[in-house]
Amino acid sequence: DGGITQSPKYLFRKEGQNVTLSCEQNLNHDAMYWYRQDPGQGLRLIYYSQIVNDFQKGDIAEGYSVSREKKESFPLTVTSAQKNPTAFYLCASSRDRVAAEAFFGQGTRLTVV
Amino acid sequence: KNQVEQSPQSLIILEGKNCTLQCNYTVSPFSNLRWYKQDTGRGPVSLTIMTFSENTKSNGRYTATLDADTKQSSLHITASQLSDSASYICVVSPNTGNQFYFGTGTSLTVIP
Predict the structure, then answer these.
(1) What is the pLDDT, as a whole number, of residue A99?
(2) In Å, how far is B86's CA from the nearest CA of chain A?
(3) Which residue did the predictor score with more confidence, A16 or A108?
């Protein structure tokens, strides 16, 4: 059935390591997004992509990188440059039209140990 | 500046009681407002969508209202159940671009 799949659900990283979070969608959506969620704060936009091979920085892109080589996939890499990476990460997608609904994956909880 | 504010930050109610969550926004130009439910450790799921011309919309025990003049919305939950325990997030979209403005959410706990 259609939806967005994030993996893994839980991820542990040692300080100084890069890690990649997976996000796959089969909704045929053009736009995809990565958000970070911290306790007591709203979702903050890390990166978004409106079309294959194109992506834009969001409000908190420092220390993160993305790629969009396929329409279905939008992986997020958390690099060692991200000073406080422990958080809940949400991937979303939407149709490429104004004010379309955002559909979310189930999230990945990243913990730095 | 485009902002979305929600209140209260957290709420505890007894099972079977009603409650109302508030959302105020300054997003402009306005296109629509959605209420999402987010269970702990899960992704948000859309409950309702309100456009400029709508002032009330229901989804089972959830009823959303919108006053586009005062830029306020509310989500009323009737006859609460334990499964209603979650965070409720107000999301506003302008009518330009693929953008979403998120509130910080209201954490609702329903106790037996």
Answers:
(1) 67
(2) 13
(3) A108
Calculate ∠ Cα B81-B85-A6, nearest 5°. Answer: 125
Q: In angstroms, what CA-CA distances link A42 with A88, A90, B39, B65, B101?
A: 11, 12, 15, 21, 9
Residue B82 backbone dihedrals phi, psi, to 5 degrees: -60, -35
Weakest-pLDDT range from A14-18, A34-38, A105-109, B103-107: A14-18
Probe site for chain A from B54, B98, B107 (most A CB atoms < 10 A):
B98
Is B45 within 8 Å of A50 when comparing Cβ atoms?
no
Mean pLDDT of B35-59: 93
Q: Whole-angstrom Cα distance, residue B22 to residue B17?
A: 17
Cβ contact B91–A102 (<8 Å): yes
Q: What is the distance between the alpha carbons of residues B46 and B37, in angstroms, rounded to a whole number?
A: 6
> Is the Cβ of B73 closer than 8 Å to some Cβ of chain A?
no
Question: B110 with B65: CB under 8 angstroms?
Answer: no
Q: Which residues contact B60 (CB under 8 A, 6 or more apart)?
A: none
Mean local confidence (pLDDT), B9-24: 98
Contact status of B49 with chain A (Cβ, < 8 Å): yes
Establish, for the pair of chains A and B, how many residue pairs have beta carbons separated by less than 8 Å.
55
User: Model confidence over A36-93: pLDDT tens digits?
Assistant: 999 888 899 999 999 999 999 999 999 999 999 999 999 999 998 888 999 999 999 9
Among A18, A41, A45, CA closest to A32? A45
